[in-house]
Amino acid sequence: xxxxxxxxxxxxxxxxxxVFVLAYFIVPTLxxxxxxxxxxxxxxxxxxxxxxYMFMHGSFWHLLFNMLGLFFFGVQVERxxxxxxxxxxxxxxxxxxxxxxxxxxxxxxAYAVSLVGASGAVFAVLLAFATYYPxxxxxLFGIVPIRAPVLVIGYAVLEIVSMFSRNRGNVAHLTHxxxxxxxxxxxxxxxxxxxxxxxxxxxRY
Length: 205
What we know:
Number of strands: 2
Low-confidence stretches: none
Shape: globular
Number of helices: 10
């Protein structure tokens, strides 16, 4: 595949921002149409929601934090693998994470829950960043420097613990973990790079 670069990360950020403005200030009914609701997907065959949910966000802060993560990590990953590959990786991760969440919600009777946000895809991008740049240091809370692989592992543990906590709130921890899992499979099967092996090797540096 020919390597091309056209700043797909910024295009995704602009689309997310535009959808947020449209849904919250111009067409309020768009939220229920774009969010992924199991009952609508299964009973009305609104399967497009498995794709559109990742472009809809629950609040300005939800949008901001996801887009900051996409910007900081996505730009670097896109430059490493090319824009076409990055778009495929990002969108596929988001869709499969949505499908997995849909399955779990349906089997557990959460038919009316509304899933929104790019978090599953962003978590996938974070794993890809840590895999390609294992020695990169990220300032946690803007203060504490932490290596990218450590951040990924820390997030994974936190998501697992939070998923079984009584105070889970409205955070889709399952979707976040699915993003990590899908990214791992994609990196190994398609891009021929094993995050676990990279993380273990990076400890020597």
